[in-house]
Amino acid sequence: MNQPCVYLIPPAQRGPFCALILPGLEEELSRPETELLAAVEEDTPLGALLAVPQKERYELLSVFVSEPFRGMGLARILLEAARMRALELGCSRLTAACREAPQTHPFLLHAGFPILLSGQTWNFDASAAVLARTDALAEALMQDGWTVSRETAGEQPLLRALQGEDAVELSYGAFSPDSFNLFAQCILPAQPYDAERAAAAMEDAPGPAVVEAVEGGLALAALWQEESAFDGERTLRGFLRPLLDQLRRCRSLLNA
């Protein structure tokens, strides 16, 4: 099986995914404020995650993979998509309110959630941890020669890091005391980049980021996972420098 794509499915297009939602959640599926992330390969629905974005948290309601495709890592792919979506929305907490279902709770435990009892949710207040991690990253970037400015997106601390003409927006999310995600986004502006050219650039300029056409240019978005102990050199060497290399290769290819 090839790597499936994960899509955010609008309410009007959720019909084919009803069978991938745990029983009793039909009403939540129909609500416009509820989000459905679906793993799809060649128009075949493989699995789905149902969640509700709230002010500071992204709450999981259902994680389900079709039986023929279990054991292939699809649930973890869906969870990573949920983590990225939570970061995009500025949520500082990922919570779980999943109903009892075979394999659902063991999966969440393995993914780093504490023990879940029926009817309970889990919350990790990440605000202090995220702020401290953001400060540490800013210091590491400045020592590496970057120009760094600080902003906030809602209550989420945001770093804008510049190295020459290259700019990266960086924000952290923490969904357990021992797990941090660093979300990075770069924009190549002011060119008529289309999806086909973006796809070609992604193939010819491999790196940590997903490349897509957006209004006003081309976006490179990437996610990096860190453990509880911050290692600035590892983040720079393993993530940010390769990301800048990919950004520069994309710029060269698309502007040729």
Strand order of the largest sheet: 6-7-8-9-11-10
* Uncertain parts: 114-124
Describe the largest sheet: 6 strands, antiparallel
User: Could you name the CATH topology of the largest domain?
Assistant: Yope Regulator, Chain: A
Helices, by number, come to: 6
Total domain modules: 2
The multimeric state of the shown protein is single chain
Whole-number mean pLDDT: 77
**Helix percentage range:** 25-40%
- Radius of gyration equals 19 Å
Give the total of beta strands: 11
Q: Structural class of the helices, strands and pairings?
A: alpha+beta
Mind explaining what this structure looks like?
With 256 residues, the protein is of the alpha+beta class. It has 2 domains: 5-110, Gcn5-related N-acetyltransferase (GNAT) (Aminopeptidase, 3-Layer(aba) Sandwich), CATH 3.40.630; 127-254, Yope Regulator, Chain: A (2-Layer Sandwich), CATH 3.30.1460. It is built from 6 helices and 11 strands. The strands form 2 sheets. It has a 6-stranded antiparallel sheet with strand order 6-7-8-9-11-10. Strands 1-2-3-4-5 form a 5-stranded mixed sheet, covered by helices on one side. Helix 2 links the parallel strand 4 (57-65) and strand 5. The longest helix has 23 residues, at 232-254. The protein starts with a strand and ends with a helix.
